[in-house]
Amino acid sequence: MKYIKVITSLIALCLVLVILFVLFVENEFSGIDIGIENLTDIEVSGLRITTNASDEEHVIPVILPEQVYIIEKFPLEKSAMEDAMQIRYVDALGNEHVEVLIGYLDGVFSAEVFIQIVSINESGKIDLNIKVDY
Question: Fewer Cβ close by (within 10 Å): the C or N end of the chain?
Answer without folding.
Answer: N
